[in-house]
Specification:
- The protein has 11 helices and 28 strands.
- The chain is of the alpha+beta class and about 600 residues long.
- Strands 1, 3, 4, 6, 11, 12, 13 and 15 form an 8-stranded antiparallel sheet that branches. A 7-stranded antiparallel sheet has the order 2-5-14-7-8-9-10, with no helix packed on it.
Length: about 600
């Protein structure tokens, strides 16, 4: 490259094909790519004359990936397991590579070692990967499984190549990976121009993803400058988020306080552009923003939503982590719990008991709306499970003595909650090899029960909450592009959906697929169906690792959510109960339709 050359997506040195302009992280302009994975890219950009050669260079951009709610649970295991620990692109099959979207490359992106540079986002987990291989090198430097970019939010990515030193990948201002490349300092990365949104052959198109502030320039940006650029952009991004949430509207926050926060946010974003310490301004704004979000008006009802705890004994890690969540819910004065089921690991006696011991210790004398999931069906016969579950519900005061059905109801602060537990009276012990599909079945008597209750409770200006373990077919179709295991969804559900279409003030709470915030969990309105679903985050594993698992890397989150009810307006608040911190970036506000 010429020492003075800088290529961006909006200057005269680019050949642009397709790409829709959209809003960037800082409120500016970005490009949205909408290509089909594995096919020729209709949206792409060529940076003319941008041959990398043997020069030092810095590649920087802001990236917003598709959230990709399928969470790796869809398709054949042979297709997706390789993505979980991606290291070597050359080891991937053509079928696996077809799920990839190339962010930028000056080489072909296929299953063999190719000299050049490529940066890709591999699906279904949206892992960012980097492949750096000069001509004459025997193998590439590869950075793989960059998980923090797959949450559907804006992230700043910087790649610096000091040809006499290190190749470094920065994510959000911090060094994420680095490798020595000095042994190749005289070797060229090829003379092909860099293509953005596809590989050098126009294949493996990126999408649906969004890029902003893309630049390729000669020289190596310092760590300090990378951090400065990130915090300048992140402060602007935060100010745009505050403005976009329209916090001064609706019943949740004080309008005057919201306007004061927005004014200060805009001022701090302006100051960050020229400040010597934009990090301090970013953290100041973040603290003010977080404090504001926690000061809501008084809601009508506060619910703690949790699902798929997979309790593993009184001393098990999952059980102990779940206890933290319930203790925090008690501290915050939650009125009731909605539990989406799979509260045991494999349905064994000591696992089932550990859940109810935890409830006795942490949630005595407060309403508990808990369904059974497929994991509860793995050891007990159907009649044994019904008896066990109902006995514990009775001890907790939720059902009468000798109650023998896996569905029930209750009322909290004027809002009704209905629990339906799918079950099959045909199974004995289902086993561990897919036989639990019967646990997803809705019975006609449950539909009749639900219809009668909704006709009685709906239309009162308040939501009615319905709890079912398995997922909604239409929602999972949308999240996974139609690829999921059949036992993920509610079975024999048509009657259920017919009832829900007539009652738009019902909120259906489901679990089972272990989605995380940024990967599908949250409030979803199915407009064509006229009902609302809260896809509850899974405790054990989920998109971007938001779930406790003893094998998870340090720093991953253990998520649940609180729901605050203000009439027909819901505030869903995400939290990490292992770290005892709020995840306010994933808050959602939704008003039920009339």
């Amino acid at each position: 490259m010429n020492p003075a050359e800088i290529f961006t997506l909006f200057d005269q040195n680019v050949l642009r094909s397709g790409c829709t302009e959209t809003t960037a992280h800082d409120g500016g302009v970005a490009l949205y790519f909408d290509n089909t994975a594995g096919q020729s890219a209709k949206d792409k950009i060529t940076l003319t004359g941008s041959t990398l050669g043997a020069d030092d260079f810095t590649l920087r951009l802001w990236l917003k990936t598709d959230r990709n709610g399928c969470n790796g649970w869809c398709g054949d295991p042979a297709d997706y397991l390789g993505y979980c620990d991606f290291v070597d692109r050359a080891a991937q099959t053509p079928g696996q590579l077809a799920h990839g979207g190339v962010l930028c490359a000056n080489c072909a992106f296929d299953g063999a070692y190719r000299p050049g540079l490529s940066v890709a986002v591999l699906q279904p987990r949206a892992f960012l990967t980097v492949n750096f291989m000069p001509e004459g090198a025997d193998k590439p430097v590869q950075f793989g499984s960059v998980r923090p970019v797959c949450d559907g939010r804006w992230h700043m990515i910087v790649l610096t190549a000091d040809r006499a030193g290190l190749l470094r990948l920065y994510v959000d201002g911090q060094v994420y990976r680095e490798a020595v490349i000095s042994q190749w300092q005289a070797l060229s990365l090829g003379d092909q121009p860099l293509t953005v949104g596809a590989d050098a052959n126009g294949a493996f198109g990126l999408g649906p993803d969004t890029l902003a502030d893309f630049a390729l320039e000669q020289g190596v940006m310092s760590e300090a400058e990378v951090a400065r650029r990130y915090y300048v952009g992140a402060t602007s991004q935060l100010a745009c988020e505050i403005a976009g949430r329209k916090l001064d509207q609706g019943p949740i926050y004080n309008p005057a306080a919201a306007q004061k926060l927005l004014s200060h946010a805009r001022w701090l974003a302006e100051q960050a552009q020229t400040s010597e310490n934009p990090m301090a301004l970013y953290h100041l704004l973040r603290e003010e923003y977080e404090a504001f979000l926690l000061k809501t008006n008084q809601p009508d009802l506060k619910l703690f939503l949790i699902s798929d705890e997979h309790c593993d004994g009184d001393d098990g890690l999952r059980t102990l982590t779940t206890r933290r969540a319930y203790r925090w819910a008690q501290e915050l004065g939650m009125d009731a719990v909605i539990d989406g089921g799979d509260y045991s690991f494999f349905g064994k006696d000591f696992e089932l008991d550990s859940y109810w011991h935890m409830i006795e210790d942490e949630w005595a004398d407060k309403p508990l709306f808990v369904t059974v999931g497929n994991h509860e069906t793995l050891e007990l016969k159907c009649n044994e499970l019904v008896r066990y579950h109902c006995d514990h519900l009775h001890q907790h005061g939720m059902v009468p003595a000798d109650y023998s059905k896996l569905f029930y109801e209750g009322e909290v602060n004027g809002c009704h909650v209905i629990v339906l537990a799918q079950y099959s009276d045909t199974y004995t012990v289902t086993g561990y090899k897919g036989m639990w599909i019967h646990a997803g079945e809705i019975k006609p008597e449950q539909i009749d029960y639900l219809r009668e209750r909704l006709d009685r409770y709906c239309g009162q200006g308040k939501p009615v909450f319905l709890v079912i373990h398995n997922s909604v077919r239409k929602l999972l179709d949308r999240q996974s592009q139609g690829n999921y295991r059949e036992h993920s969804v509610i079975i024999r559900e048509n009657g259920l959906y017919d009832v829900l279409r007539s009652h738009p003030d019902v909120v259906l709470c489901t679990g089972h697929v272990h989605h995380g915030f940024g990967g599908g969990a949250g409030i979803n309105y199915l407009e064509d169906e006229r009902y609302t679903v809260i896809d509850m985050p899974g405790v054990r594993g989920c998109a971007y690792g938001y779930g406790p698992n003893e094998k998870d890397a340090p720093g991953l989150c253990h998520c649940g959510c609180f729901v605050y009810v203000f009439g027909k307006t819901l505030l869903l608040r995400a939290f990490d109960y292992a770290k005892h911190e709020w995840l306010t970036a994933y808050d959602q506000v939704f008003t039920l339709p009339d």
